[in-house]
Design a protein that fits this description.
656 residues; alpha+beta; 6-stranded mixed sheet; 5-stranded antiparallel sheet; 15 helices; 33 strands; 29% helix; endosome; autophagy; lysosome; RMC1_N; RMC1_C
Length: 656
């Protein structure tokens, strides 16, 4: 399988740590995404590494028994270590400086601490088998203060640091889940909910396993993911992932079911808002996107994998260290190993090999695996790094080898412009609030321009200009595609930039499709604009009616005529500028020098002669003499005229 077939990969630079062995215990903290390697209970050293940490944190601790759990508070200010089922030890962390420890025992009698979670840099939650205890740590006093507690029988717990929600499993079947939400010193109890277990014969005791539950934020919403293994009956359809939406307010609701159509051992990750399901038996993974249209049965939406199952891209473990011989080749990594441990959202750890990877989605291979261009666009527009892939899809669908039909191209353009318009509207609302023209409650945040916003300049630069320059593409198809894009922009009321109209006109002129150009202008398919009018003026030599079309357009625009003259002169369209100014009757008041300067810059002597003669005739008509007055500052142009054409070419005053 070529590299272009794998749509999942492990990150290039994993976090490397000392492999787990009898002397070295490895712990992972989901909140800080840190790996702790604890040697001999910390006596011979603790090394802490995270994905973004340039320098690992190293320190020693006194060996006070086996470490059950170890985590830093957010910002690495306080270290918490659990060694017994009753207490947690704390230490204010100052690198290279040993600090005395202080201890907190759980308040509930006869309770055992299952674990703890930091919810801020000074707030911590103990989860015991009899409830939950929320403390504030006072580092200066080296003590803790109980803020709130709640008694409930707990089988196991799960923490989602991104949303600061702890989920407790309760009851005998373990399938009643009680969420708690933490924020700035407060603990809120959210409504509990039940996870529906699959039907099973009475003889088998089913209960909800912690292994089959995950919590993750998908598209900004918190979901509880339940991996439901169906019993292997003849009518079994395989396992499925059930997504329960857990809102801040209101009841938890079953929303989506992801159909896996297979059974066995699975693991879940969430990457770029996609649910990734790894299947150990086949050593493949599939991805689901809950934003794509699924089958709705009135209460839940059923989804199938977006793409065929594929393995994660093969990964080579680099040979590191001074002992590595230069010719030693990298070792292939065993993917889908039973030693892998998966954490949310996108982390895979191999403790036996000493690696922590982030799982990543590769978008380019998906382009060829998803033939339906409309669905492909829906998928790509939701991804973080999508812009260049989207533009490459647009180029590809216009290319000779992979050309799409016009309805498909129109669908793609409409999807892009829908997203573009959404951003423009949000930006406009924000600007109105900023300027004090409207009020917003709550205050509007400035809209973030994501990569899904593909604007006209992106399309022009990366797709359309190269497409129109391709000589092998039939010109009718080129015009049809350009007009389709303009139609799509007009449909969502996005003002079309003049350079797109210019592209249409240049294509029409290139292929002498003047009748079509005339119709487009007559029926206002191409919107009036100053640059467009100037372009038409410059086309007069190819298509004489263009002059009148442009004058009509300028009159409709009622634009400042001086500006139009300036634009034409800057494009060296000196005659067109002169004809335009004569057309509106302003030729008696214009500066001769400005036009002569522009004519001289073109290095076209005959053009200079024509312009010079025009102004001589104007002088004769207005003042009775063809000569320029000193105030017109045209001496250098008179000298240039004499030098090129001789004194005799100067116009003589006519006498009556």
């Amino acid at each position: 399988m070529g590299e272009e077939d794998y749509y999942l990969e492990l990150c290039e630079r994993p976090v490397q740590f000392e492999k787990a062995n009898p002397v070295n215990c490895v712990f992972f903290d989901e909140a800080n995404k840190q790996v702790f390697a604890v040697r001999s209970g910390g006596a011979t050293g603790v090394v802490v590494k995270g994905p973004d940490d340039r320098n690992p944190i190293s320190f020693r601790m006194n060996d006070k028994g086996e470490v059950k759990c170890i985590k830093f508070s957010l910002e690495n200010k306080i270290l918490a270590v659990q060694r017994t089922s009753k207490t947690v030890d704390f230490c204010n962390f100052i690198p290279d400086n040993s600090q005395p420890e202080y201890t907190q025992e759980c308040k509930t009698k006869n309770a055992n601490i299952l674990g703890f979670c930091w919810t801020s840099s000074t707030e911590i939650v103990f989860i015991t088998d009899q409830g939950i205890e929320f403390y504030q740590v006072l580092p200066e006093k080296r003590s803790l203060k109980l803020l709130k507690s709640h008694n409930i029988n707990v089988n196991w717990y799960m923490y989602c640091p991104e949303s600061a929600v702890i989920l407790l499993s309760t009851t005998v079947l373990e399938n009643i889940l009680q969420p708690f939400y933490f924020r700035a010193g407060t603990m809120s109890k959210l409504p509990k909910f039940e996870i529906e277990l699959p039907a099973a014969p009475k003889s088998t005791k089913l209960s909800l396993s912690e292994r089959d539950i995950a919590m993750a934020t998908i598209y900004g919403q918190l979901y509880v993911l339940f991996l439901r293994h169906h019993s292997r009956t003849s009518n079994s359809t395989g396992a499925e992932v059930v997504l329960y939406h857990l809102p801040r307010e209101g009841a938890c609701k079953k929303m989506h079911i992801l159909k896996l159509n297979r059974t066995g051992k699975f693991a879940l990750n969430v990457v770029d808002n996609l649910v990734v399901v790894h299947h150990q038996d086949t050593e493949t993974s599939v991805i689901f996107d809950i934003k794509l249209r699924g089958e709705f049965d009135g209460s839940v939406t059923f989804h199938h994998p977006v793409l065929p199952a594929r393995s994660i891209q093969p990964y080579q473990i680099p040979v590191a260290g001074p002992a590595a011989v230069t010719n030693q080749s990298p070792v292939p990594c065993k993917l889908y190993s039973s030693a892998w441990i998966v954490f949310q959202p996108d982390i895979i750890i191999s403790a036996s090999q000493g690696y922590l990877w982030n799982l990543q989605v590769k978008l380019q291979p998906i382009v060829n695996l998803l033939p339906d261009k409309g669905r492909l666009m829906d998928f790509l527009l939701q991804r973080k790094e999508c812009k260049m892939v989207i533009l490459s899809v647009c180029s590809q669908m216009l290319s000779e080898s992979d050309r799409a039909t016009l309805p498909v191209i129109a669908t793609v353009f409409d999807k892009l412009n829908h997203e573009y318009k959404k951003y423009l509207d949000a930006e406009q609302s924000y600007m109105a609030v900023e300027a004090g023209q409207s009020r917003s409650n709550p205050p509007l945040k400035r809209p973030v321009r994501t990569q899904a916003v593909v604007d006209q300049s992106d399309m022009y630069t990366h797709v359309l200009s190269a497409f129109t320059e391709n000589k092998d593409t039939p010109h009718k198809f080129v015009v049809a595609v350009l007009m389709e894009y303009i139609r799509s922009l007009n449909q969502v009321q996005i003002p079309v930039q003049h350079y797109l109209h210019e592209l249409v006109i240049k294509t029409l002129v290139q292929h002498s499709l003047f009748y079509m150009l005339h119709q487009f202008l007559q029926y206002h398919v191409l919107s009036d604009s100053k640059p467009l009018a100037c372009l038409l003026l410059s086309l007069e030599s190819f298509y004489p009616p263009a002059h009148q079309l442009s004058l009509d357009m300028l009159k409709r625009l009622s634009t400042a005529n001086d500006e139009i003259v300036e634009v034409l002169l800057s494009k060296h369209q000196v005659l067109a500028a002169l004809r335009f100014i004569r057309g509106i009757g302003g030729h008696d008041n214009i500066s001769a020098r400005k036009f002569l300067d522009a004519a001289k810059q073109t290095e076209d002597n005959m053009l200079f002669y024509t312009i010079f003669r025009f102004f001589e005739q104007r002088n004769q008509r207005l003042r009775g003499s063809p000569n320029f007055t000193p105030g017109e500052h045209c001496d250098e142009h008179v000298a240039f005229f004499k030098q090129v054409f001789g004194d005799q070419a100067l116009m003589r005053p006519t006498t009556f």
